[in-house]
């Protein structure tokens, strides 16, 4: 092994200079990856789905996260429950990854049978003294915020999920996101490290050159910019941007929508998140090529189309909620150089395809953006594994959140005795 390969995970993290990218080994090494999964996907709250994944009693969705697997189920009382996907007999997986509908959860090995409330209902050949009451499925810590299903696999789940819940619940409430359906969903595998996927999502320095579909609905100043030596034309545009933002924010607040930016991102955060209500360019209605709504059936009982984009980041997800549809993406790391990205497009539960919306208008912006981001992550991962790679300096104007993510990553590892 080279000297670099012999460095511990903590040493690699400490080697990062403030304001610079991470060492390439943090993206490429298998031992680093295994630790990342354990810390950031088993001990932190992560997004694993939406309530529309299990719309009816008996619907289940199985999600694999590293060596762990969970079952999300809607029970007969329409409550959403989550369990470890492990039979309490000899550990067999109850369900394979994906969605299905069941009456009960039956182990395929010895047919131990569980109710959707997790209780063991049926076994054979176990004798009259066998106590089924202590063999229920293992529950998982779960928080539902809007439509978002967050879980923590650790028994000691971070308590600051309450910050996210208290911040986002009133923002999501007018949209009635639990009364939605999945109009389209996509899974792609990006051949890059999960941290590079998140870093790419945390900046829009690259957006104008690579995301023509996405930038049709964004105001360019929201991408970040260097305020030094701006032209007279740019200064005028900046003042117009500030005026438009202020007017939209004031209008939303008057109508009862909570729109102020909230950040819980720095080293003292455990459950990292950020939310902002972005003004949409053009017609100002939705993240579409035309910037008008893709679905004429708005969420909840909304009547305003021009509600901008309620944006939420966590360390494994990003969400965009407009008046007519929502785009929710989350990631699951598969290997040091492979990351699964799941994206779901939600519309009102009563919206009718071909009448209220068509899938092309609904999806074309983020289908294109996801494809473009996949390429960017992959070429960056390849470059960071090149022997010539030396971490570069971040732009303080457009990549501050990437630097912030790097600091948070180091802080969380330190909290677990690693960095």
From TrEMBL:
This is SRPBCC family protein. InterPro entries: Rieske_2Fe-2S, Rieske_2Fe-2S_sf, Ring_hydroxy_dOase_asu_C_dom, Rng_hydr_dOase-A. Residues 47-151 form the Rieske domain. Belongs to the bacterial ring-hydroxylating dioxygenase alpha subunit family. Keywords: 2Fe-2S, Iron, Iron-sulfur, Metal-binding, Oxidoreductase. Its cofactor is Fe cation.
């Amino acid at each position: 092994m080279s000297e670099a390969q012999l460095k511990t995970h903590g040493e690699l993290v400490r080697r990062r200079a403030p304001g610079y990218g991470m060492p390439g080994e943090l993206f490429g090494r298998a031992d680093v990856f295994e630790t990342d999964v354990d810390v950031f996907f088993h001990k932190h709250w992560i997004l694993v789905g939406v309530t529309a994944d299990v719309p009816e009693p008996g619907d289940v969705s199985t999600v694999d996260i590293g060596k762990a697997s969970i079952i999300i189920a809607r029970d007969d009382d329409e409550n959403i429950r989550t369990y470890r996907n492990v039979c309490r007999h000899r550990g067999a997986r109850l369900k394979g990854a994906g969605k299905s509908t069941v009456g009960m959860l039956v182990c395929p090995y010895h047919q131990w049978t569980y109710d959707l409330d997790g209780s063991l209902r049926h076994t054979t050949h176990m004798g009259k003294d066998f106590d089924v009451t202590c063999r229920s499925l293992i529950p998982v810590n779960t928080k539902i915020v809007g439509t978002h299903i967050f879980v923590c696999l650790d028994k000691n789940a971070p308590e600051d999920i309450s910050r996210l819940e208290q911040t986002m619940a009133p923002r999501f409430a007018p949209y009635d996101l639990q009364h939605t359906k999945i109009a389209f969903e996509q899974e792609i595998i990006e051949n890059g490290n999960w941290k590079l996927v998140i870093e790419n999502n945390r900046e829009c320095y690259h957006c104008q050159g690579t995301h023509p579909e996405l930038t049709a609905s964004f105001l360019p100043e929201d991408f970040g910019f260097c305020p030094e030596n701006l032209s007279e034309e740019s200064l005028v545009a900046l003042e117009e941007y500030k005026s438009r933002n202020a007017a939209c924010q004031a209008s939303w607040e008057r109508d009862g929508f909570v729109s102020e930016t909230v950040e819980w991102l720095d080293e003292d955060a455990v459950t990292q998140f950020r939310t902002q209500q972005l003004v949409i360019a053009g017609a100002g209605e939705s993240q579409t090529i035309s910037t008008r709504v893709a679905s004429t059936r708005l969420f909840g009982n909304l009547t305003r189309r021009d509600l901008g984009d309620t944006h939420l980041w966590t360390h494994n997800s990003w969400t965009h909620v407009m008046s007519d549809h929502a785009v929710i993406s989350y990631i699951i790391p598969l290997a040091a150089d492979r990351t699964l990205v799941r994206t779901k497009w939600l519309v009102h539960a009563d919206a009718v395809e071909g009448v209220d919306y068509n899938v092309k208008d609904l999806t074309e912006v983020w289908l294109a953006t996801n494809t473009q981001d996949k390429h960017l992550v992959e070429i960056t991962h390849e470059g960071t594994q090149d022997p010539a790679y030396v971490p570069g300096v971040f732009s303080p104007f457009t990549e501050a959140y990437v630097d912030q993510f790097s600091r948070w990553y180091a802080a969380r590892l330190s909290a677990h005795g690693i960095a």
